[in-house]
Amino acid sequence: MWGSVLGCIATLILSLLVAPLAAEAQPEGKMPRLGVLTPGIPPQPWVEAFRQGLRTLGYVEGQTIALEVRWDEYHPERWPDLAADLVRLRVDLIVAGTTAAAQAAKHVTSTLPIVMAVSSDPVGDGLVASLARPGGNITGLSIMTPELTGKRLELLTEAVSGLARVALLLDAGSPRRHIGLHEHEAAARVLGVQLQPLEVRGPEEFAGAFQAAIQGQAQALIIPTSPLFTTHRDQLAALALASRLPTMAGNPGYAQAGGLMEYGANQIETWHRAATYVHKILHGAKPADLPVEQPTKFKLVLNLKTAQALGITFPPTLLVLAEEVIQ
User: Within 10 Å of residue 77's Cβ, how many Cβ atoms?
Assistant: First the structure.
């Protein structure tokens, strides 16, 4: 009798120990599956930052979470097909790395949660009803592009004394290029600066754009936030130095690559933070109720070596504002 009782107790204890393990090792079909729409070609630091964010939250790719990453390969017209492909795969959630990617995802699904890892103006671009209450199936992070446009131009005028004419590099493949142009034109009017817009479709057109800026007698050049410009920041910085054009960029890493100045939110950080939104949604939160996060910290980076090569002396006011000064 006692042998039978002890046997039952042992079986019960064993079942209690095994049950949590069985709950954690869910069947493959139950593993959350994320679709990721990202600009460029692999590898890119922002995707690794997102993966690191997931790891920080305890996810193990291939074991507790699966990623279906789709790259636009510098062809943003592919976003609709890439987004539709993820919907066909029945992913649980889509992470969008550009405004255009988020718009494409919104067009193909009104039910799947969409997390914006980077968005320029989510309200103005029609992605959410408001920052505090997105109201639909989209939420995420904004880099506040409209608010920073005027600030970048203002900082550039402080660095380059007597600045009267500025060239503006525009990504012809970006759906926001016309909006971005209007934002820069408005800022230029306030500062009394003439603007020379120059559209490019890829890195093979960069050299021609710089030549056009010189021929147009531009005294400096602005490089707005764009995945195209971020990926090719080394080439742009080299062209700027060879053309002796002071430049201000919104892309992270531009000053470290040899550019004169950069100012903006940390997009690597927004991709890392996107993992937190994914985690909350997978645990039951609704995108409609998750406020869009705005950056609270902006980084001004100055490159003193490039400034000396261009014959520019940064005023003390800029040096004090700079979070990083590259010697």
Answer: 11
pLDDT tens digit sequence for 4-41: 433 433 333 333 333 333 333 334 457 999 999 998 88
The β-bridge relationship of strands 261-264 and 299-303 is: antiparallel
Same fold, 23-143+268-289 and 145-264+298-326: yes
Q: Write down the pLDDT at residue 20.
A: 35
**Rounded distance, CA 16 to CA 186, Å?**
67
* CA-wise closest residue to 117 among 87, 93, 152: 93
Q: Which CATH class is domain 23-143+268-289?
A: alpha beta
Token match 């005027």: residue?
150
Work out the mean pLDDT of the chain and round it to a whole number.
89
Structural domain boundaries of the chain? Answer: 23-143+268-289, 145-264+298-326
pTM metric for this prediction: 0.76
By mean pLDDT, which of 63-72, 85-94, 264-273 is the weakest? 264-273
- Top CATH class, 145-264+298-326: alpha beta
Q: What number of other Cβ atoms are within 10 A of residue 50's Cβ?
A: 28
**CA-closest candidate to residue 258, choices 206, 310, 213:** 310
Spatial contact of 271 and 118, defined as CB atoms under 8 Å apart = yes
Q: How many CA atoms lie within 13 A of 187 on its CB side?
A: 24
